[in-house]
Amino acid sequence: MNTFHELVEVAEIRSKTWWLLGRFYLERPEPAYLRELSEAIQPAESDANGIADKPLRLLARLLDSESLEALSNRLMPEYTRLFRGIREGYGPPPPYESLYRGDEFMGDLAADVQRVYTAGGFSKIVPEVGAADHLGAELRFLSLSCFNEMEAWRNNDATGAVQHLEAQLGFLDQHLLAWFPVYAQRILRETREPFYRAAVQLTQDFLEQDRLCLEQLHSHLEAA
Length: 224
What we know:
Elements: H1 4-26, H2 31-47, H3 53-65, H4 68-83, H5 97-100, H6 108-119, H7 135-154, H8 158-190, H9 194-223
Helix pairs in contact: 1-7, 2-3, 2-4, 3-9, 7-8, 8-9
């Protein structure tokens, strides 16, 4: 991979994937959202040949196995139980990094995450979730950072693009990969709903895949 065109394509795919993953944790499974998800997943599922192919194929089958209205009705209570943190004892703690790394809610970890956002040129990524270290906000930050990287490559700004790549790599190591695997295991224990099991597994697989991709890409660019 040594052309700006290829680098633009990779950054665009990564941006779209992070955005799609963030939606699992930010949006209620309304029929309109499930329809958009189905349209986004079908092309990827037909081309799937990597480590994330099994959850992709499962999601595609689930979205095609019943009416989206029926699927929405089944998923809605489970979405609330898994991700909204309604009350203690009703589902797991909500998906905030601080709650899964032993920090105070809206404490130092959340402040550090916000500093990363600010350094990347963003203020509140998803204001409605409150603390900056919500899983959906962290995934969306990576999507936006990849988009900015894509624009930098498109404008032949290699220095700016590499800065975005390094920010993504640091964020994965210092934040998402430091807590999401623990969170994923908790959700996989908590739910028997195949849709959310597949969503969490897809997120985990892509985190690992993207970390490796970033490391290889960064090494390649340094050697160029």
